[in-house]
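Re: the request from the purification team.
They wanted to know what the chain is likely to look like in 3D before they choose a buffer screen. I agreed to run a prediction and write the result into the notebook, where they can find it.
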Amino acid sequence: MTDTNIQLTSLISEDNKLTLALKNIDMPQPGADEVVIRIEAAPLNPSDLAVLFSAADMTTATQAGTEQSPAIIADVPAKFMPAVKTRVGKAIPVGNEGAGTVVAAGSSPAAQALMGKTVAVIGGGTYRQYLCANVQSCLELKQGTTAKEGASSFVNPLTALAMVETMRAEGHKAIIHAAAASNLGQMLNRICIADGVDLINIVRKAEQETLLRDMGAKYVVNSSSDTFLADLTAAIIETGATIAFDPIGGGKLTSDILNCMEVAASRDMKEHSVYGSDTFKQAYIYGALDRGPITLNRNFGFAWGVNGFLLFNALAKLGTKSVMAMRKRVADEITTTFASHYTHEVSLAEVLQLKSIAGYSKHATGEKYLITPQKQLTFKDHNSLID
């Protein structure tokens, strides 16, 4: 191993400033049940951007530092500072997941068994060159799987699988998914096709409809169409879907979904009830692509629920046996069902360039960024990094 270990951090200071920068950190030494991973690939997911940018107004972002050691500085609106007070003054390591080669291992048999293997890892701080992690946070990839192929082994694959398992555990039989042409949405399609689960995909562009139908999706409805509500209701009637997962959050899409579920459920009611149908309708919000208020126009009776959906909470409810089976499936199918495709690869330094931020902060369907921490950083003086 080299003595150089560079990490990307996000810092909010008391003067309402966000600073994104690279830091020199010590090379980690593994404990008994730990391994040191040379991180070779790490995806930029929406959940990473929430930590990276926090509450900053990125329209105020300016370039700082040098070409070799760039930094980004942006303003944090004063009204948001109370919400982030627990992270003020702390340089937060960024990156939820990644993959690479185990280059050092602790003394336990489980750690030693991973020595020299390519593994995926989750747990935070993966936007660095070398990461120390507990073996339980690692997923050994099948021989021949590259770090790039395995970089997105946790967040999207396990979220998609957890959606299907939650559907089953709660007694539903079909799923509605919004922003369905996303990387995660495409995985969910492949899972549902393979497992024989009906899935209603909500998209907003004609080309996204074509993308999913070409993948074999049977039910695709376009939220920008004049017939959207009628199309969604018809698909719900055909599938019996009573559970939905919405990454958009703000606006009235969740409300529209619940209302269409209610129309489908109440169409055969013999008598009117002011309480609506007795069919329970569940909507989970798992993202915030729209940070505006969530509007619920309550025309969907009283048998409903709207909840947040967080991966780790969902996995805890499903239990260890289910989670281990899910992890094995991901490792077995990481180049097929759970394959991720990247349109841009950037080094740690390139992440901190305004032109890169303009690209990966768009949440654009069909564009996904991959960080390659081992890409040569041409620092003339490593001491120029923020220590």
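For the purification team: The radius of gyration is 22 Å.
Please add any questions underneath this entry.
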